[in-house]
Structure prediction request, 79 residues.
Amino acid sequence: MDKPTVAQKKPYAVDVTAGDRYAWCCCGRSATQPFCDGAHKPTRFMPVVFTAEKSETVYLCGCKNTAGEPFCDGTHSTL
Prediction:
């Protein structure tokens, strides 16, 4: 598996809490999108772990092709 699976062609709007850690799925195989559930294990992909800087709504990439992992950069509109 060289390329990620496109989970959806739009971002996931997620409410995050300041100081909490999150693991974003970058392979597209997770059943708990947009978060990792370990489905990447047979692939070369690893989740992107991040800590929320503040409590807010963030837009996590659903197409898994963003240049700004884990956040949506609009790449889905070109797929």
Notes: The longest strand covers residues 12-16.
